[in-house]
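Worked example 4.2. Below are the chains of a multi-component assembly; read each line carefully before continuing.
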Amino acid sequence: MAEALKTFRPYVTWANARGGWPDIIFSTRVRFARNLEGFPFPNRAEPRQLGEIRRLALAAVKDTGLFSRGHFLKFEALSSLEKRFLVERHHVSHALAAAVLPAGAAVSNDEDLSAMVNEEDHLRLQCLSAGFSIEETLNAALKLDEALGRALPFAFSPRFGFLTACPTNAGTGMRVSCLVHLPALSRLGRMPQVLENLSHLSVTARGIYGEGTMVLGDFYQISNATCLGRSEEDFCQNIDRVIRNLIRQEIAAREELLKGPLKVKTEDAVYRALGLLKHARTLSYEEFMQNVSLARMGAAMGWNMGLDFSTFNQVTLLMQPAHIQAAAGRELNPAARDAFRAEFLRKKLA
Amino acid sequence: MLCEDCRSHNASVFLKVAVNNKVKELHLCTACAAKKGMGFGLETGAFNISDIVGNMSGYFKDFLPPEKKTLRCGGCGLKYSEFKESGRLGCPACYGSFEPQLAELMSRIHGAAQHAGRAYSGGPALKLSNAEIARRLEELRAALKQAVAKEDFEGAARLRDELKLLEGRHG
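Applying the procedure described above to all two chains together yields the following structure tokens:
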């Protein structure tokens, strides 16, 4: 079993339910893309340069003091299970996990801060917080960015801002996002229209693990689509407005699902989902996500699902494939994983 | 909502893809998604981002005006045409080398071509390893030799200054 996994926390604070609308907003994330002056971007750098960049970047991250007792990881030393675990924790991207180059990551002890090294850019700095907390998350991410900017020479031009491998990330280099749960809008078939509307507001919707990933369990990552030409605060305010609007729409959709003949249908779907989660003997991650989405919505409608939102969130993290194997303490094939997941969940819901 | 492919199962996989600059939405059931090779990266361990990168490069290719002659970055040697293919720049100096082209591209992507976020006044010089210094010295000496051979005295003077700086800092 992968040793590195044992050092990660069983629960992470950023997955706790917090603030207004904990039933809709899972977490908030701010990330900055940064590169070192004097080196090619990772796609054009030689492996030994990437090794040098990683050495310099991880040392500077350590020196900020924000990662004390944290994790400093070199990716060639990690198993694929460990990398998948880090992706599931939202600390690193699929692209970094798949990288064959000298790549690395640092994760703070609380697991709210992380830094990816040699993904598409030399550095991707990230702050994750519980609930709907854009301002606080931005400030924490800026603190990390500013500390590193004093220790390393970042590539910057007054015209194009912070310079990145892909021009879509240049400027502030910032992506601010909320992980939102929109089961009622999905159930009413409104999501295509909602996403279409978002695309006119300089906002992107992605799946639960970010770029290029599928939507699972009606969770969407909503983020700014552009990041140059306005201040960091302006981009954040735009996302804040969009998210508040989505919250209003989701609440209205939930009210619709409780009106007239729809109510018994909704109630039936929610309790069937809860029954499945409670009694299944084998449960795939995908089936879990579909059903937990309904149960989570049921809890938001005031029905007793036996779990509060913090537990819902933590369980949602724990049911992921690499997390299941970490809990089992060994690698499991998909069938064994599904059986373990069902049993693990039955105990949680008992 | 029903799967757009088989029309018999509920759609559980939602995908938004960019094809030829148009956003296409797909709602599929798991079986159809798997058939289309869009298995869940986490379950299969195989995650393919090439589609996304491929779509991105199409985006750049369609939008960018054709260049009149071969443009090349003075920093890393990346050709502008290579950038149009991959959608990825080679180094920070590319932004200076391709400034007019990138300004136009930035306006299209971001609706602006002037940074308005936080300013940055620069960080300290890096504590490079001896191997990296040796590599950079070698690169500069080769470039200096070429500049002298081409009688590019302005370029040679600039390179000589850079060499002195690097040797002085670490020598």
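Take a moment to check your reading of the output against the notes. Helices of chain B lie at 30-35, 41-44, 50-63, 80-86, 94-97, 99-110, 130-149, 153-170. The first strand of chain B starts at residue 13 and ends at 19.
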